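Replying to the earlier thread about multi-chain prediction with a worked example.

Input:
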Amino acid sequence: MAAHLSYGRVNLNILREAARKELREFLDKCAGSKAIVWDEYLTGPFGLIAQYSLLKEHEVEKMFTLKSGRLPSADVKNIIFFVRPRLELMDIIAENVCSEDKQHSPRDFHILFVPRRSMLCEQRLKEQGVLGSFINIDEYILDLIPYDGDLLSMEYESAFRECYLENDQTSLYHTAKGLMTLQALYGTIPQIYGKGECARHVANMMLRMKREFAGSQNQILPVFDTLLLLDRNVDLLTPVATQLTYEGLIDEIYGINNGYVKLPPEKFAQKKQGEASKDLPTEPKKLQLNSAEELYAEIRDKNFNAVGAALSKKAKIISAAFEERHNAKTVGEIKQFVSQLPHMQAARSSLANHTSVAELIKDITTSEAFFDNLTVEQEFMTGVDTDKVNTYIEDSIAQKDPLIKILRLVCMQSVCNNGLKQKVFDYYKREILQTYGYEHILTLNNLEKSGLLKPQTSSRNNYPTIRKTLKLWMEDANEQNPNDISYVYSGYAPLSIRLTQVLARPGWRSIEEVLKMLPGPHFEERQQLPAGLHKKRQQGENRTTLVFFLGGVTYAEIAALRFLSQMEDSGMEYIIATTKLINGTTWIKSLMDRPESQTP
Amino acid sequence: MSFITANWNPLGEAFYRKTELYEMSWNLRDGLRDSLVAAAPYGGPIALLREPHRRSPSSRPQLEIYSASGVDIASFPWKSGPVVQLGWTVSDELLCIQEDGSVLIYDLFGSFKRHFTMGQEVVQTQVLEAKVFHSPYGTGVAIVTGSSRFTLATNIDDLKLRRLPEVPGLQGKPSCWVVLTQDRQTKVLLSNGPELYILDNTSCTAVCPPGFSPQVGNIVQMAVSFSYKYLALFTDTGHLWTGSSHLQDKLSEVDTKKTPTPKHMVWCRRPKSQQPSVVLMWDRLLLVAGVCGDTIQYPSNQFPLEDPCVLVGELDGVRIISSTNQELLQEVPLVCQDMFKIASMAPGALLLEAHREYEKSSQKADEYLREIKEQSMLGEAVRQCVEAAGHEYDPSTQKSLLRAASFGKCFLTDFSPDQFVTTCRELRVLNGVRENGVGLPLTHTQFKQMTLQVLIDRLVYRQFYPLAIEMCRYLKIPDYQGVSRVLKHWASCKVQQKDLSDDAIARAVCVKVGDSPGVSYSHIAAKAYECGRTELAIKLLDSEARSGEQVPLLLKMKRSQLALSKAVESGDTDLVYTVVSYLKNEMNRGDFFMTLRNQPVALSLYRQFCKLQEQETLKDLYNQDDDHQELANYYVTASYREKRLDSRLSLLQSAIDEYNKAKNEFSAKMTEDEMRLLRFQRKLDDEKGAGLLGLSLQATMEALLSLGLHKQTEQLYRDFRVPDKRYWWLKLMSLAEKEEWEELEKFSKSKKSPIGYLAFVDVCMKSNNKYEAKKYVSKVTPEQKVKAHLAVSDLEGAADAAIERKNDAEMGAILSRCSASDRLLIDRLNRARAAAAKK
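Result:
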């Protein structure tokens, strides 16, 4: 079921299995039939760990969403709350418990905190007078969730905002804990590199936690050679750029949530012959996207301009395979053909799906609006006129294009110009406030605080230096047969991935100057391995690096890292971990502040 | 070596031996006479309650505690009530059962731990007899009272008293009784004259052991085996009946021809016993009665005459403690019999002989070896030697056996050394703990049963820390279960030493414990705090690596500031929150805020908390920090929660003040604008019912335009200094939407468009008005000509413009729009492209 997790260089299914085992153990602690009351935010991430069938096997009969008021009636012995440790949720739980009908056969209450129990929340329950009603109060340590064969995410949406706006390092504590769990399963990671304040903080916590657990050293041969911790604010540019890989575009346009995307249904209507396709489905089409699907694994990381060719090549292969049946003469041949049928049919429906998705995307990418937007982005990234008010942005504001689109562009210009000239800066802000409403002054403040949008403080713009040294712009990006990571943005090579690439070869010492221009310290730490666990590397064996993006990572960046893993001479394989999978829109959204009365 | 069998006595097919364990270190003036004695199994401690020399009301009995070797551990005068029985628990705690039914518990060092009572009614009826017993549930106590009733507690750590049913016809105490643990049930077996009863929770049943004839007399003594599986009954006619304790089978019946009631009667068995026996002791005689019917009499010349002794049943034998020495009586293990029996031809015995000859450099060694090898028994021989060594108490015998094994091993290939190595190590440990000073006379069998972990615990409990550590290191036990555990106990004990200063103790602990893995300083500190040494606890906490662990104790000790900085250090935000909420309740507001100010991490977490829970406090926090920017933002946020315009405006005014203080002129200006806009909207809403309040400036102008309120729109445009470009866009779109084409054309001519004319083309096209759109195509700048023509689908025009501009990309763009019917145009463009390319 989750076989795709175990195909990669590192078998991430071990992590998933460990998580499942813990879940089963908790469920068995509450004997008898049960109903789960879900903190809605958790259902997505949990789906990656366990399907309903697992819960059912452990006598979970009903599931509800946590909301205030009375609990729905259910004839079960146990009510289990699965919640994040948040005070507002505690109040709802208290309300649920208090309004429980006492005459009815009493039900046992339990709480499972994800990912960690909290004294503060328990205190709150105590104040509400319901703490004693709970038989079990437990924690389910779910920090890093295996997302795909080479991808782990904490699904911690507010991580960037908390770290950079609110100086709340809870997510970093969870990160460090998650990395400790990972090391318990996959061995101590001997080398740690990092760049950024948060990276430093996480590394410090990890080293301290290791000291705390000294002696219980695990005797597992290390799977990872290196850990690279990268702060998102080291590279603020990449997420605001429009991703141009297949998967990246799906996310930009439709949004991928916990491995699923919801698409407009029209293109997926089952067209049967002679039947008028009048009754179009109205429910959005839900597709699961991961490397378990062979075709998707093949095309997800391609530049979108190369996807069409790949799809038609695949179509030819599949129809050729179906044609084979005419060549099957003997019973044995026919039998063999039939045995391959299910696989071929799956491939055919997968092809049909992705052809539809590609068509949907193509409608958008070929539009003038998309092209104009991309042109401006590329101008900024190449450093053209970043110090002036941009006409396209001006026009877009005047035409009331979505605010987030405007913010992405303005932030991009600011980052590419190392801050905007005060006049330009104020002009944009005034335009935004006058057009979209004065309440956005809070959002603008947030963007300023996080460094995404700022006035120029020194006259020196160091972005061009960074761009040139790290070769962030490649004039002749080859989209069809890429030879460099810049293909993921059709020319722009993500800064974060360049840093990763340089670290592997020739090393960061070669770019000291640039590293100093980027925010936060850079560092290197070594963790002592117990004697006998030093890896004896085979000739030509690749090294494995875990790259952890603190504050989020985009699909295009992931694609770039996968591209590096596959490059023959790179000698390095990458596993990716992050607090949250993001794109420019979701990222900017997480930084926006909406006064309460404005929220819909 | 040849004397090894000197202390062997045959019993049936087997042999019994009596080995001296210790000459007792104690110096008892009156021997064991007039004393209550309790000795714990597994070489446990011995307790003595000695009656005073002169019976007078003022003199108190003396309670003394010794190690098994007789080393004095504690001694103190007994000041409590009369004691009926002493006993040891499984964790080496001393139980003193008093006549009034109360049970006092002391630790090994004689300090009082706690007490419990066997029932209130016992105070009246008095305890006549009591027994301490061990079961899988722990240590239990059974008493019989003056009213002939039995009360049981199966586990003193989880006290549940059970009063057993009455025994018919019983007056006073029974002639003898034992406690049985069978099938997870605890019962009492008792005799009253010739009758035998089993007493369980609910009933009292008369029973008759199989093959037990009433003629043999009244039962006067009984004993159960160490494992509760076997029972022995002794009658006043000198008959000894043995059988299973289920009373299903009879093993044997022996006529000892001794009618007095024996002082002690104990089973002597060992695992895989060939010939179990019962040991009976009278004043001047020790009798071993085998199940086979044979007996061994240890006459008085081998036995102290006057002095009474104590028998302690063990897993694999019986310890005999007298006032001068201690002996172990046991059946000789089979392997030892094979090794040492006269003229034994067992392979092990031959190997031992071979090695002996080898040491003498005699060629006979070879003959013996050859003999073993011919039977291919060398492996077996080595195994026998090793196993026998384990059972021997005397180190020199152990050595010669192990040397023989080692010698034999040389002639073997592929022989696993594990058993040899393990036995060597274990014997070294056993010899160590058997030392007089330590006094744990454990046999190898007992050691295996007890496990190493428990042995370490016992050593730690007896405060033999260095030995325990040596042992852990020697046996290479992982630190977590070994050295660290010992150090933890040591440190917890160390902090209680009252004669040392805090500094000295903290230093001693830190030096010894260092950063041994698994030793929790907070645990040690908690112990120190328990003993009232707060300062010491704080000093110790400093060495705790896990900051998280320090926090709860620091809070408990009211060192909240320190707790806060430790919580911050741990990175665990929940912990920080916990301390913060604790501080909030504990301190006055001013101090609380000051404390937070010194801890930025805690402060920002608290701000987060306030944002969600206590908006008012948030304001105070910003105020106190003079954080005008955030304060302004706070007012802005608050303004949106207000429904009434005037309160909203006043909040915004406060925001402006704060922005000004923060020198954020831009935001101040913007907020002023916002207030202006709100007032304007309210005015128009009141006048015209326009429904503007809450709209953005742009949306307001839009709404005004669609209402046809051009003058007011102009006013806003001027007042808010809206850029021309955006104003033009606004007007353009608004007019197009209302399809006021004439107005639009007028507007387009009002002055030169700041947004160019392509926008006009596009907007008209969006309203599907190609006619109007075409009007503006000619006005478009040359660069946008092609685009404009394309927008109105005028390919010819586009082509003209592109060819004129000789722009290849534009020509390409037009080509891509051409369909097959545009043959001429395509040719023209292609020619132009070729021409342009040539140049």
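The longest helix of chain A spans residues 331-365.

Feel free to reuse this layout for your own posts.
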